[in-house]
Amino acid sequence: MPGHTLETKSQIIQAAKTLFKERNIIGVTMAQIAEVARLGRATIYRYFRSKEEILAEVLQNESENIMRRLIEITKGAKTASEKLKRYAVARTEAVQEFMEIYRKSLQTRNLFSPRIINVFDNLLSKELELLKSIFEEGIRTGEFGAFDAETAAEGIIAALCGMEAIEFFGKLPKQWPKKTEKFLELIINGMKSLKKGRVENEEANEDVAN
């Protein structure tokens, strides 16, 4: 029966996802979710106690899809710089789609429920690891200069989240995806200049020694 259980749960999540795309979570009832899923209300309550729980599950699925997309899109790049550029474009597109679909539901009190906050925290932790690994690769191959990869990853995530929070409430210009790409370009140039500075210092030290 485990397969049947997963199938039923998936039906509920897909039905809720369809409804959450169309309207605010407040405008969706458990009865409507049951109707779209073609299941009885009792079956819905067997899996979820409330529509807030279903929203958290929907968002969990969406965040997993975003992470898979980011890993896949960066995997094919040959250099750390190219991975970062692909990451910036893919993340912006994915988050934009995510916010467009769920903006209304997340602008309710449910935005701050512990379960939903936990979904976003998990996504950011995985993103942090991905970015850190890209920076470490760039340092290891000599593409970037030496710096703290974890601190750099945390800084970029914080900056991107800040931009997205502004966009979430409709205050950021529509060209913000392009601005995100340019922001990452500045970061990449800065990391490459660290390498250039280190090489110049080493050469200067050699001249002094000679």
What would you note in describing this structure?
This protein is mainly alpha-helical and 210 residues long. Helices cover 81% and strands 0% of the residues. The protein has 8 helices and no strands. The termini are far apart. The C terminus is likely disordered.
End-to-end CA span: 77 Å
Q: Please report the total strand number as a whole number.
A: 0
Class inferred from helices and paired strands = mainly alpha
> What's the CATH C level of the largest domain?
Mainly Alpha
Report the sheet with the most strands, covering strand number, pairing sense and barrel closure.
none
- Mean pLDDT equals 80
Q: What portion of the residues fall into strands of 2 or more residues?
A: under 5%
What proportion of the residues is helical, as a percent range? over 70%
Overall 3D shape: elongated
The helix/strand order is HHHHHHHH
CATH topology of the largest domain: Tetracycline Repressor, domain 2
Q: How is the topology of this model organized?
A:
Blueprint: H1 2-22, H2 30-37, H3 41-47, H4 51-75, H5 80-106, H6 114-141, H7 149-168, H8 176-209
What tags apply to this protein structure?
Arc Repressor Mutant, subunit A; disordered C terminus; 210 residues; 2 domains; single chain; mainly alpha; Tetracycline Repressor, domain 2
Compact description:
By secondary structure, the protein is mainly alpha-helical. It is 81% helix and 0% strand. It is built from eight helices and no strands.
